[in-house]
UniProtKB/TrEMBL annotation:
Source organism (scientific name): Undibacter mobilis
SUPFAM superfamilies in alphabetical order: PUA domain-like (SSF88697)
Residue ranges occupied by any Lon N-terminal domain in the UniProt entry: 17-212
Name of the protein described by the UniProt record: Peptidase S16
Entry-linked SMART domains: LON
PROSITE patterns reported for this sequence: LON_N
Length: 224
């Protein structure tokens, strides 16, 4: 989705951002992630992001530590910042938003803040290539990716709009399939941290082939 501001390099993004820890949620550059916001602390986070004008939220996964009133879960070090590009009020106190991914970040420090939501000092420098749309597309084995997708959908009795899939740019295809994949938090984190588009595509194919192999084991159903 096109955005009004253009982010050309790490210096175009703030060094401190609010973060939204959400297990299993994957945002990648130029991908769209819909979110249903209902917790008061995250409603406040959205309000503050809109009020401050930057409209940026850092999506990141907790590392698996159970959250409690006295203990915040540790976070993975790498996430992806997204801009709020759509927002609707549900009428019952919720926000329905869509984030469009801008660039990945690495947490340098979690700050002590007065807000109920968490904020971190981050760097985007390790992911400068994220600011270049469609970088590395020519290195992706698109046919292998489509074969893996076809096999997965066949094994799970799923259908797709193949005309749209075949016409999609390779970056949108790789990142979109990674974001929509039904895999667990470790797999999603590995896809996020892949150094380039080619590696992400190869990893997605490998994970899919592993899941298909598991489904072929007698007595084990395919992943749904």
């Amino acid at each position: 989705m096109p955005m009004n501001p253009r982010y050309r390099s790490p210096v175009d993004l703030p060094g401190v951002i609010p973060v939204f820890p959400l297990a299993g949620a994957l945002l990648l550059p130029r991908g769209q992630l819909p979110l249903n916001i209902f917790e008061p602390r995250y409603l406040a986070m959205i309000d503050d992001a809109l009020r401050d004008g930057h409209r940026l939220i850092g999506m990141i996964q907790p590392d698996g530590v159970t959250e409690s009133p006295r203990l915040k879960p540790a976070l993975f070090k790498v996430g992806c910042v997204g801009r709020i590009t759509q927002l609707a009020e549900s009428g019952d106190g919720r926000y329905i938003i869509e984030l469009t991914g801008v660039a990945r970040f690495r947490i340098e420090e979690e700050l002590t803040v007065n807000t109920d939501y968490r904020q971190c000092r981050v760097t985007y420098a390790p992911f400068a290539d994220d600011f270049v749309a469609r970088k590395g597309e020519d290195a992706v084995d698109r046919e292998a990716l489509l074969r893996a997708l076809t096999d997965f959908m066949t094994a799970n009795d799923m259908t797709a709009d193949w005309d749209d899939i075949k016409q999609a740019p390779t970056e949108a295809l790789v990142n979109g399939l990674s974001m929509m994949s039904p895999y667990g938090a470790p797999e999603k984190q590995a896809l996020l941290e892949a150094p380039d588009l080619k590696t992400r595509a190869e990893l997605l194919v490998a994970i899919t082939e592993i899941e298909l192999a598991k489904g072929n084991v007698e007595g084990e159903p395919p992943l749904q």
